[in-house]
Amino acid sequence: MISYFNDYANLCFEKFGDRVKYWITFNNPWTHAKVWHSYNKTWRSKQQGMVGISLTSAWGEPVDLTSQKDIEAAERYVQFYLGWFANPIYSGDYPEVMKNYVGKKSVQQGLGTSRLPTFSVQEKSYIKGTSDFLGLSHFTTRYIIQKNYSALRGPSYHNDRDLVELVDPKWPNPGSKWLYSVPWGFRRLLNFIKTQYGNPLIYVTENGVSEKLQCIQLCDEWRIEYLKGYINEMLKDPLTTHMEMVTEIVVPTVFTLCILISAILLMFLLRKHN
């Protein structure tokens, strides 16, 4: 599978790389890394493009901010969701909490080894750092509480995490049963990625909301509110990028104002002269 996908990717690079400069691969760390290395070795110097991966993740918020168990469960929720694929690329291995929990449940189920594969030293080195940007798909948030599940329930991604997902009934529910509008969760997920993975370049590859009502005419106020809320959260710059914002926004604005003021003064001087 890895070789086939790599062959397909190289064909795409060959045929379209002179025009396409942003590439998204496959959400499997090893397959993605293989393609990234192929591009880096053969095509990057000629085409000057970027190769990234696109991953989906919700945000997990602890129900009780004073409960260490809930805080850890919420962290675990995001690590099992996003870290499963992102951590190998940015840190070289699966999240420690994921390795511990899946390993423990595997032992309790009588298995000789963990159900979560183990990377060799060579594989870790090969995968780590293989992303020029992170594509992020995000739609919603969940409240998280700790709950232990017996390993006797059988192998399960959901049982391995030892947590329960909840929603606030006050959250707007635009359409799909699983999709609640929680814009502040987007901001917290972005901050998590910044801190966890060294402030990578992020492109939002998916965000949006399903249709709520069948309308004869345009009636998508819920979609407007959803997108406005999420875009506004995304636009909130963290403190560490404040100077970039000042450079990109304030300086050009001041420069424009200076030109306008100079033009106005020149008009007054010309009128006075006449």
Explain what the structure shows:
The protein is α/β, with parallel strands linked by helices. It contains nine helices and seven strands. The chain has helices spanning 2-16, 29-47, 68-91, 96-108, 121-127, 157-161, 183-196, 221-234, 242-273; strands at residues 22-24, 50-56, 59-62, 134-137, 141-146, 163-166, 202-206. A four-stranded parallel beta sheet has the order 1-2-4-7. Strands 3-5-6 form a three-stranded mixed beta sheet. It is globular, with a radius of gyration of 24 Å.
Salient structural properties:
globular, alpha/beta, three-stranded mixed β-sheet, 12% strand, 9 helices, 274 residues, four-stranded parallel β-sheet, 52% helix
Quick synopsis:
This protein has 274 residues and is of the alpha/beta class.
Strand neighbour order, sheet with most strands: 1-2-4-7
CA-to-CA gap between the ends?
A: 80 Å
Large-scale geometry: globular
What is the residue-mean pLDDT, rounded to a whole number?
87
Percent of residues in helices: 40-55%
What composes the largest sheet?
4 strands, parallel
Give the helix/strand layout.
Blueprint lengths: L1 H15 L5 E3 L4 H19 L2 E7 L2 E4 L5 H24 L4 H13 L12 H7 L6 E4 L3 E6 L10 H5 L1 E4 L16 H14 L5 E5 L14 H14 L7 H32 L1
Parallel strand pairs: 1-2, 2-4, 3-5, 4-7
Antiparallel strand pairs: 5-6
Helix pairs in contact: 1-2, 7-8
